[in-house]
Amino acid sequence: MNFGGNAALDLAAERAEQEREAGIAAASRSLRTPGTIECEDCPNDIPRERRIALPSATRCIVCQTKFEKARR
């Protein structure tokens, strides 16, 4: 396919917008999912304060930090 000038930019902008919207929708679904009391990565319980602040939490702070660093 040969896209000229603005058509290619418009297509790229449309695709970027679709990806942003998909990411927002996925994050929104994730936040509505109930969390757990026990961390999914270690045997520790997720502190009550964390579960109140983020009801969808599935990891304790230590494990969540490790998880996020590993994804970078």
Question: What is the compact description of this entry?
Answer:
The chain is mostly helical. It has helices at 5-32, 48-53, 61-71. The mean pLDDT is 88.
Tally the helices: 3
Strand percent estimate: under 5%
Structural class: mainly alpha
- What's the Cα radius of gyration? 19 Å
Order of helices and strands: HHH
Portion in helices: 55-70%
Distance between the termini: 34 Å
**Uncertain residue segments:** none
The main β sheet shows up as: none
Counting structural domains, the number is 2
Mean pLDDT: 88
Description:
With 72 residues, the chain is mainly α. The chain folds into 2 domains: 1-32; 34-72, no CATH class. It has 3 helices and no strands. The protein has helices at 5-32, 48-53, 61-71. The two termini are 34 Å apart. 7% of the residues are buried.
Please specify the SSE layout and strand pairing.
Elements lengths: L4 H28 L15 H6 L7 H11 L1
List keywords for this structure.
single chain, 72 residues, 3 helices, mainly alpha, 2 domains
